[in-house]
Amino acid sequence: MTGPQDNTQRDTAPLRRDNSRIQPDRAMPAQYPNQATRAVYGPPPTPQQGAGGPSGPPPGPRRVTPLGWALRGLVLLLVAVVSGALWLAVKPSDEQAGPPEPPPLRYQFELSHREEAFHGCKQVSRGQIRSFFAEEECEHLTRALYTTELPDGSRVLTSVVTVLMPDPASAQRLNTLTTKDGTGNVRDLVEDERAGTDDMPDLDDAAYASGRQDRLVVIGDSAYMGKDTPKKDPDLTDVTNEALKLGWPQDQQKPS
User: Fold this and answer.
1) Which of these ranges, 117-126, 143-152, 226-235, has the smallest mean pLDDT?
2) pLDDT tens for residues 2-46?
C-alpha cells in the first residue's frame, strides 16, 4: 500500500479480561508548602493508663499514723461529752421526778382520818418547827391517822404527817430539826382535836420516827389503843417506821 500514512502509535495499554483498558493510576497532586493539613491524634488514654502513659498497680490502703488515732479518739470523746450534756439537759431533775412506787408493807394499815392543810405548815406547827416554816414555807401538807393490829392482837394508832418542801436541801434541813429533842413539831390530828378523835390515845412522841424521801419529809408516831403506851416501845417504833412508807402515796392521794 502506497501513499502518505499518518504516523500513529498503537495504543499498547493492557486490557482487562472484559477487554476494557486499564487506566494508569492518577498522579497525586503535589503538596503545596502553605497548604494546611489536619493533625492526626491517637486514641485517648484509658483511666488506668493516664496522660503520662501506663501506671503501676493501684495504691494500697493508707496507714493511720499515731497522730491520726489520737485525733479520732478526741472526736469520739467530744461526741460522748456532747451526748452526756444533752442527756443531762433533757432528763427530769430530782425535783420533777414522780413519786416512787410504794414498797410492800409488813402491817395492814387502815386509814381512819386524812386532812389537807389549806393554810400552810406554819399554822399547824409549834416551837422551832413553826419558826422554821416562817422562813421556809412548805408546798404541801397532809395529816392522817391509821389503825393496825399487831400479831399479839394489840391495836395501834399511828399518825403520819407529810411535808412537801421546795427542794431536797430544805427537806433535809427540816428533817434534821425534827429529830432533835425540844424543837417542837407539826401537830397531829389528835392534838388538834379533830372530829372523831375524842376516844383516841394521845401521840406524845412515845414511838416517834421521821425520814426524808427526796423533798418529802414524813413524820410518824404511834400509841397503843386501850392500854398504856410505854416510852420507846420497840414494837410501836417498828410500826411507826413501817408507816413512814405511806408518805408518798398519802401526799399524792386526791382529797375526797
Assistant:
1) 117-126
2) 444 444 445 555 555 555 555 555 544 444 445 444 554 555 555
- Radius of gyration of the chain measured on its C-alpha atoms: 54
DSSP labels for the chain?
Answer: --S-----------B-TTSPBPPPPPPPPPPPTT--------PPPPTTT-TTS---SPP-PPPPPHHHHHHHHHHHHHHHHHHHHHHHHHSPPTTTSPPPPPPP-SS--EEEEEEE-SS-SGGGB-HHHHHHHHHS--SEEEEEEEEEE-TTS-EEEEEEEEEE-SSHHHHHHHHHHHTSTTS--B--TTTTT-TT-TTSPP--STT-EEEEETTEEEEEEEEESSS---TT-HHHHHHHHHHGGGHHHHHHSPP-
Residue, of 197 and 41, whose pLDDT is higher? 197
Instruction: Please name the residues in contact with 99: beta carbons below 8 A apart, sequence gap of 6 or more.
Output: 216, 248, 249, 251, 252
Cell of 37: 493539613
